[in-house]
Backbone:
């Protein structure tokens, strides 16, 4: 697990450094954050460490208000559900140095889909899963988020955000305990 997190962080930093010069006014943006994990049901504990890369909006996305593509990873510090997401992020300046952001996309998680219906109800493994793990219903889930970021200067910003991952009875049926996380993040923009 630690090797995977380290590899993901190094890949993100290498990609950032290699591509920084190729981005215009929006620039490439790297974010580091910490979230409280599983706020709605609070079955899973432990904060999550998050890493995110946002790219400049390509020209072909201009008709839908120029969202920026993103890659996101959320890693649970207690060894529970981790997930990665890709999608689009729209942001709007709502005041001087204050931006509102909406993100949407798809995520993949390494969590528990459901309890085996054929298992013995008294089986300790079944009881442990039901009381310590979010039962997500599917490995591929929708990812949606809201954020509020304050620009400290042209390069750095700090923000708070909320994220929700679930299948919405669309990508799967049955179990859908979902995950709701909220936290803070620090952003660095390259190429400005």
Residues:
């Amino acid at each position: 697990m630690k090797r995977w997190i380290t590899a993901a962080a190094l890949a993100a930093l290498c990609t950032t450094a290699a591509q920084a010069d190729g981005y215009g006014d929006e620039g490439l943006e790297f974010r580091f954050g910490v979230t409280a994990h599983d706020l709605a049901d609070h079955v899973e504990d432990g904060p999550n460490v998050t890493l995110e890369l946002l790219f400049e909006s390509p020209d072909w996305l201009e008709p839908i208000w120029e969202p920026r593509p993103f890659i996101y990873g959320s890693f649970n510090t207690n060894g529970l559900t981790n997930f990665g997401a890709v999608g689009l992020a729209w942001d709007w300046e709502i005041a001087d140095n204050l931006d509102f952001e909406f993100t949407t996309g798809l995520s993949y998680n390494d969590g528990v889909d459901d309890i085996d219906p054929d298992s013995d109800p008294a089986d300790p493994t079944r009881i442990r899963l039901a009381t310590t793990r979010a039962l997500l219903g599917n490995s591929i889930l929708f990812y949606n988020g809201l954020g509020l970021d304050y620009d400290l200067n042209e390069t750095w910003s700090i923000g708070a955000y909320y994220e929700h991952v679930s299948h919405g009875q669309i990508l799967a049926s049955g179990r859908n305990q979902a995950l709701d996380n909220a936290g803070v993040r620090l952003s660095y923009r390259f190429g400005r």
